[in-house]
Every structure is written in C-alpha cells, then in structure tokens.
DNA sequence: GGGGCCACTGTAAGCGCTTCCGGAAGCCGG
DNA sequence: CCGGCTTCCGGAAGCGCTTACAGTGGCCCC
C-alpha cells in the first residue's frame, strides 16, 4: 500500500513464512528438483499470499545469464527497420528473451553504447551501418554471441542479408526491356550496406548491358522528404532521366510526389522504382523489390538463440531471396503482373 | 582467444593484479571516493590490460537498480508507434537507461509478459490498449514507476496523451464548412483509446452541429490494407458518403487508393481525412491531424526519469496539443493553408 | 534384520559487484 | 610532542537468487 514500500519481498521471507529453507522455496518455484507435494503447496500459497516475485537480478546473477538479447539498428523511421525489429522481437520473446533496443542514429559515440549494451545481454544482433567492424569484433571477443543483419560479414559471425544483387539486375533488365536509356539513381550508397550493394549491382547490370551508368548517385537520406528533394534535383537535369531508381520505397514515394508536382506523369514522363515493398508501395503502384523484412529479424533471432545455446556449428551465412514486384510506376504492361525471381 | 573463454575477468583479478582490494578497484573505477592518484593509475592500467568490464549484473544487484526501462506497445507497424518508441528510446538513452521493448500485438498472455518486463526495469511506460488496467495497477503496486501513454489514466499514474477532442471537433467543423452532409468513419473505436476518443468526439461534434452522425463506424484495423478494404465497403453504401473520416493516416491512404480504384476522385467525389500526419500524408495531400509523436515518447521518458529518481510530485496529466493540417483531400480551398489549433 | 535406495530438505558456497566501517598513516597547529 | 583531521585502503557484509553437496528418514528386498 505505502508508496515508499519499494522493499520487495524476498525469497527469505517466503522461506521463513513456510518454515523451510530458501533452497526449498527455489526448488518448489522452479520445479527443478524433488519437493514434497504438500511442501510445494504451502510454498506456492505463501508466494501467492506475499505476492513474491523472484528478483530478476538475483536470478540472473546466480544463473549467469541475462535472459535478454539486444538489437542495434540505425533508426526506426520508415517501415523497414520497424518490421525487422518487430520480427526479431516476436521470435526473441517467444524464446523467452527480453529484447533491448539501441538506435545509433545521430548519437554521439555509438561504439560505447553498443559495448554497453553487449554487457547486458546474452547475445545481440547488429544491423546495417551502425558501428564499425572493430566494434563488432570487440563485442564478439567479449564472448557475446552476435549475428549480423543486413551488413557485410565480420570475422566468423553468422550473417544474414537480403539479396540485393539478383534483384538489382532483374530490375535493371526489366527497365531496359521498357527501352529506357537514361537512368538516375536516388540514394546514398554510403548510408547502408544494402544501398551500397544495390547501387553497385545497378551499375554493373547497366554496364553489362552495354549502357553507361550514371556518373554518380543523387545522394539523399532514407525518407520521403529527402526523396522528394533528390527527385527535384534529378528531374531538373538535362536531359531529364527517364527512370529514377530509388534506394528504397520512401525515397521513391517522395520522388513520385516530386514528379507529380512538376506536372510529370509516372510512368509516361518518368518511371520510378523503389526497394523494400512497404505496404504503401502497393497502393502507389510502385514497382519495387520485395524484401522479407519480418523474416530477416526472425531468422536473426533464431540463429542468435542457437549460438546462445552454445552451438559451435559452422558459421552461417544466408542471403534471403528477394522478389521483383512489377507494378505500374515503371511503365505500361499488358497486364499488371508480379514477376517472381 | 579461445572461444570457450566465456569466463569474464572479474574485479578480483584486477585487484589481485594490482595488489589492492576489490574495494579500491571499485572506487578507482567509479571515482566515488579517495584513491591515491598513483593507485588509480595502476588500477586503470590493469583494467586496460585485462580488458576488465564490470559485470552489469553484479553492479545492478549491488546498486539495486537495473538502469533500464521498458516500453510496451501494441505494435510497431506504421509510423506512429515507431516514432513514439524512437522518441522514447532517444531520451531514455540520453538519461543513461537501456530500453526494453515489448510488443503485445497478437501475443498470448500479454499480462504475464508485462509483469515479467516490470521485473527487469526501473520504470516503464505502457501505451494504448495493450493490457488491462488491473495489470497496470499491479505493475505500479510492485513499485515500478509507470507512466501511461496514449491511454486513459489509471490510479495515480502520470499520463500523457495527445488531444483528440479538440482536433476532432476542428476537423468536423472544417468539413461542415465544405458543406458535406454524409459522413462515414473508418476505424475501430475499440482498437485504441485514441480512436475511441476520436470517434466519440467526431460524433459529438456532428451532433452538436445538428447533424446525424453515422450509425456505426466502418471497423477496420490500423493499416493501409484494412483501410483499403473498409473504404471499399463504405463507398459501396448508398447513398455514398461524401466524407471518409479515417482513424489514422494509414487507413486514409488505403481509402484514397480504394477511391481511385473505383474511379472516384478525391476530393471531388469523396473527401478523405486521416490522423497522425505521418510523412506520407504530406505527399498524398491528405488532410489530417498532426500529432507530436516523437514528443509523446520523449516526454514519457522524461517523466519516468523523474519518478525513478523518486519524485513524489503530484500526478501529472498532460494532453499534448494537436493541429489540424488542411491539405487537398478534404475539398478545394482558396489556397492550401495549414490551419493551426 | 540390515543394507541400500529413494524422496525430500537444509547448509552453504557462490554469482560480481558496492559500500559501510574502521584502521593506519601523514600532516598540521597549538 | 600530541591530538585530531585528512587521505587512503582493506575487511566484510550485503544484494537475492541457484545449486552442489550432504544429510535424514522411510521403505523394500534379500
């Protein structure tokens, strides 16, 4: 009742109440060893009566584990990261782990924070361009199982990514079939490993097809607003690009708005493509690349669990397949269809 | 080097190495008491050399605090929750707390999970319709400072919400000025306290203006897809509603797509409004209500900090102002402007 | 009837830290 | 020269739990 009653009831009080040792209480509670049914009953009754809840701290210290794992990501704005984190949290929770989050975006000294996080979890996943490789290596060396997500492999760590290469090539091929000549790329290849790959594959595909890729990307951040501004810049170019290949769907959505504002129709005057296949993309008729975001997170959580359980299996590297989703924003088709790859 | 070297170096090893007691090491590390400069230097050198990092568990147990706080929310899909969580995490991290997340959406037994979370944090915020009031009360009674976010007050807990009433009224008034007669409401008033309020205020405003509110809402979940389906249903009604007032922006975005599919132009054939003012709303020309999402989260984190610091100040209740943002989806205006409220 | 096993329980040793308390020097002023 | 203050440091008591180890009866079986 009293507010200042922060004094938690401990296992000692329960033991005293029942007239047994704390060991017995612990055993009765965890069902880990023989306890007479009658004793157990009395213990549970006392627990109920006193509203005893074992201290997580005491438990963890004794068990030597946190029963928690962490995830560090750059940001949470935009559906992409949210979905990944959600997929991760869902599985981690199912596996009995609490999840600690850490957003590095724009924070001073992310390395310190990551190392700090590493000390409160039994394992963690590190996403994208959040901290340098040596920090990841350090975390791993401390002995905290780590899996990398949407980021280049570091040392002997499990790594899961989505396929950017294949889809980028498919995308370019598809666009070339439309007969487009002048391509612009909207997005910052330095912003995330995914975008780095996409941009590289985009250029390669163009080169392989005997076309000249754009001199440089139109750099912009990962949001609708940035995409909007970048598209304005791109469309001001002369000759005007025929296609805006955008690093993700937010950027593409912004680009579509920018095109509309300039009186350009998509795809007649300019084709636009995105990446990720967020829900809004469908309604915008955006041609994009579908990514299994939830699954990325979920898989990371499962792999992490294996490592935390002590698995010494070979390093896992997996590239989840993506899928080109053709809608209307890239040009007219006989019928709207989804090309699978 | 060895992988199985999970054995962390402890404060004892450092102490032994330097030839002092663990007490001295602790003091040198935390700078909490007198330590001879030379001793400190040697301790720090040993710490560096052994790569000693104090165990968070040991520290927490001794200090009696977790240095962490939690946030429970229904879901992370859609920009709304993400933004709130991000605002929260940002401030919490600044204040030196790690943050634990818990998504209740669709999980069995959220109460147990929430109670569990409560035992690993020094304080937590509970958002929206995640768990019943009695669970919140229980958490508070355990002695875990709690602040409520976007949810009706429970007991003597700090509560922060966004203003739904005023904005709903402004929205309705604005729509009435357009001369609309037939209103439909898309969203599930039972899905979240915010929507409950919005729907109620929406009806009241209509009634107050001498209009008859719709018999019932067109119930749908909180995403674009659900909004799309709900709008299709709503638009099939006869006579067709002139306005679709949507519970949030995702729903409205879905509704806009549905209208377009049916060959209806917005706002000429049907006006559509949203709620939240997510980034995409701007580019869709969506009239909506701006919510300070980041700030909701940030404020919650700050209040929580006060309570964790032991503040016994009076219960805080704050309703953050929202702002009607008039764009094109509600009807033609002389010039696009933003009406502030 | 006694040895052995099984079911049950208590004792106590940690887990890795923080911090109270008290002792030991060193230093200063009277 | 001595009392008292300041500075520095070690001992040890927790913090709240888990679990290895060591019993102690009771029962069964030969």
Secondary structure layout:
2 copies of one chain form a homodimer.
Chain A: H1 11-18, H2 22-30, H3 37-50, H4 56-63, E1 68-73, H5 79-94, E2 98-103, H6 110-118, E3 123-127, H7 133-142, E4 146-149, E5 158-162, H8 165-177, E6 183-186, H9 193-208, H10 224-236, E7 243-246, H11 249-261, E8 271-273, H12 279-284, E9 288-290, H13 293-308, E10 317-320, E11 323-325
Helix pairs in contact in A: 1-2, 1-3, 2-3, 5-13, 6-7, 8-9, 10-11
Chain A binds a DNA duplex (30 and 30 nucleotides) through helix 2 and helix 4.
Domain HTH lacI-type (chains A, B): 9-63
Keywords (chains A, B): DNA-binding, Transcription, Transcription regulation
Pfam families (chains A, B): LacI, Peripla_BP_3
Order of helices and strands of chain A: HHHHEHEHEHEEHEHHEHEHEHEE
Percentage of residues assigned to helices of chain A: 40-55%
What would the average pLDDT of chain A be, to the nearest integer? 93
At CATH level 3, the topology of the largest domain in chain A is Rossmann fold
Total tally of structural domains of chain A: 3
Radius of gyration of chain A, whole Å: 26 Å
| Residue share in β-strands of chain A | 5-15%
For CATH, the homologous superfamily of the largest domain in chain A is named as Response regulator
Given the structure, what is the number of helices of chain A? 13
Oligomerization status of the protein chains: homodimer
Uncertain runs of chain A: 1-5, 336-341
SS-based structural class of chain A?
alpha/beta
Architecture of the largest domain in chain A in CATH?
3-Layer(aba) Sandwich
Task: Kindly report the spatial arrangement of strands forming the biggest sheet of chain A.
Answer: 2-1-3-4-5-10
Overall shape of chain A? elongated
Terminal Cα span of chain A: 62 Å
Largest interface: A-B, 56 and 55 residues
Described by strand count, sense and barrel closure, the largest sheet of chain A is: 6 strands, parallel
CATH class annotation of the largest domain in chain A? Alpha Beta
Task: Give a count of the beta strands of chain A, DSSP E runs of length 2 or more.
Answer: 11
């Amino acid at each position: 009742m009293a507010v200042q009653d922060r004094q938690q009831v401990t296992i000692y009080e329960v033991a005293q109440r029942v007239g047994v040792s704390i060991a017995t209480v612990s055993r009765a509670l965890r069902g880990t060893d023989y306890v007479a049914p009658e004793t157990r009953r009395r213990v549970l009754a006392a627990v109920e009566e006193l509203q005893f809840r074992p201290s997580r701290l005491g438990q963890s210290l004794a068990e030597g584990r946190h029963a928690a794992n962490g995830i560090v990501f750059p940001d949470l704005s935009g559906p992409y990261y949210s979905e990944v984190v959600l997929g991760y949290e869902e599985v981690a929770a199912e596996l009995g782990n609490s999840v600690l989050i850490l957003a590095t975006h724009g924070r001073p000294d992310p390395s310190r924070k990551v190392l700090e996080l590493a000390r409160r979890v039994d394992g963690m996943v590190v996403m994208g361009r959040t901290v340098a490789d040596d920090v990841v290596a350090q975390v791993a060396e401390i002995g905290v199982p780590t899996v990398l997500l949407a980021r280049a492999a570091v040392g002997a760590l499990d790594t899961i990514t989505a396929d950017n290469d294949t889809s980028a090539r498919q995308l370019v091929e598809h666009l070339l079939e439309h007969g487009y000549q002048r391509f612009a790329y909207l997005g910052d290849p330095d912003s995330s490993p995914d975008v780095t790959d996409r941009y590289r594959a985009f250029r390669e595909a163009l080169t392989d097809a005997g076309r000249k890729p754009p001199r440089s990307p139109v750099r912009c951040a990962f949001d609708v607003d940035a995409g909007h501004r970048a598209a304005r810049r791109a469309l001001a170019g002369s000759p005007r690009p025929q296609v805006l290949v955008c690093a993700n769907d937010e950027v593409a959505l912004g680009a579509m708005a920018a095109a509309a504002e300039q009186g350009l129709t998509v795809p007649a005057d300019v084709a636009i493509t995105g990446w990720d296949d967020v829900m809004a993309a469908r309604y915008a008729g955006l041609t994009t690349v579908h990514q299994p975001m939830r699954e990325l997170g979920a898989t990371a959580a499962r792999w992490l669990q294996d490592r935390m359980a002590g698995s010494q299996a070979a390093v896992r590297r997996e590239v989840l397949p993506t899928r080109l989703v053709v809608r209307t924003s890239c040009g007219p088709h006989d019928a709207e269809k989804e090309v699978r790859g």
